[in-house]
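SAMPLE LOG
Freezer: B-3
Tube label: C17
Construct: single chain, 275 aa
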Amino acid sequence: MLIAGASAFILPSPGPVLVSFQSLPSSSQRSHQQQQHERHGALSATSTSSSSPHWLDVLKFDGTTPTFDVIDKTIRYTSEPGYRSFNLKDIPTDYYSEDYVFRGPIVGPINREDLVRTNTIFGLDTAFPDLDRKAFGFTVDPDNPYRVLYFERWTATHAGDLSIDGLPPLAATGNRSEQPIMPFSVVWNPEGKIIYEHLTTAVDRFEGNTGGKVAVFGLLETAGLPLDNNVGNPILVLQQKLGRFLNGPAQVYSRVEDVPSWWKSKAVGAEKNDM
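STRUCTURE (predicted):
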């Protein structure tokens, strides 16, 4: 049996055969070497795995570099009145690629047309007329020069009635919505159009007064309608699928055939990740 790293010297002599174990590791040394070997193997496997292409690498556009200042464009974009007030129909359409996709923890994948339609139907501009999305902390993803990450904090007053299809009407309460900070990101394509937008949950769920909820769910919390918005919630997933099946005007994700082909995940709405 061979032991890696060990060498035994058999010294011939006219007397008894002597074996020198000076180079043979002790049990503790062998254990240390084995651990080192296992760690090296694990790192090698991780390195090999991480080097494999990811389906979202398409958004790196073959390793090219933008010919424009992505942070400057993102600051101008997030300063648009329609962006600040979350009136998506008021944002100039020339910001967006035809292959645009939005994805959040429980919303999407949804194309731009469906997103704007749903946003308009919700009537948040009437219910929260002073809604303000404050964006700050812009930075470029070091692994993708087309992607800009930043933070948002939403504030608003529930000053008007809120009526969303499928939900009970909510009379104005005058409640103030102070939401936790949440991360947001946009990806520009080489033509300077937004191809992908993404947001996720609160940085600190104990901040603000919306129970850790952000964006539309934070507004609903302020209006007196607390809803479970956890990824994987089976009831929420079922409700979303029913709404999609009934094909109402307001949707949280687009039909498969209406999602740009670069988007590969089949998980929709609040479903757990599938890849």
